[in-house]
Amino acid sequence: MPRSTRRRPALTHPATGEIDLLDVLHALSDPTRMTIVRILRAEPERACGTFPVDVAPSTLSHHFKVLRESGLIHQREEANRKFSALRAVDLEQRFPGLLDTILAAHARAEADVQAEPHAQAETCARAETRA
Amino acid sequence: MPRSTRRRPALTHPATGEIDLLDVLHALSDPTRMTIVRILRAEPERACGTFPVDVAPSTLSHHFKVLRESGLIHQREEANRKFSALRAVDLEQRFPGLLDTILAAHARAEADVQAEPHAQAETCARAETRA
Fold it and tell me: Among A22, A73, A112, B18, which is disulfide-ready with B14 (CB 3.0 to 4.6 Å)?
């Protein structure tokens, strides 16, 4: 059988109503996967090899699988390339406000780090006396 | 040295400004830890042995450590008992709206399961044709 007509297993996606909150939180708890989701928030679709993340191809493939199986992204294959898209509408339907709130929290944390890398000394000291 | 005066290592807690979003998401991605957080959302403090969760003591101890180190809970020791409290104010300061949005999503998912356990067949079928 020629390679082009060999059947690969279909990419499976959970239905919107079956997206599991804990799976979504787990998927978003990794920095590479969070980066992928933030990039996909800003564009409709992207080919999998074009994400600016510094991980081995097999690791990246695992991250996409976790994202897809959690319901965060939809993937499709076309001419031996795989394209990913954020399931933003499905997620908003399943868990209103969740993705935006998490991405806003991430943007806020990133902004804190960039603006004032050493600004937390006073807060630290207070927490230590409390702990 | 008598047992009662032996010093145990102090319980460490991240400062509010150092609470890491990905650590919080990871901590909340486990069903036992999510249950603990939901219980603590409803009361000011609770002794660690009194949570209605069905896991071994060593596993539970690990879950409390993950929750404490993520910044989700504060723990204190008193007379050989450990008490836990949700750091709701700190979390709201660090990531406004995050905890409430996640807990609301969890409550919604739980309500769906209880109300209509088989209501998602149609949604599933649609997703399969799309995938």
Answer: B18
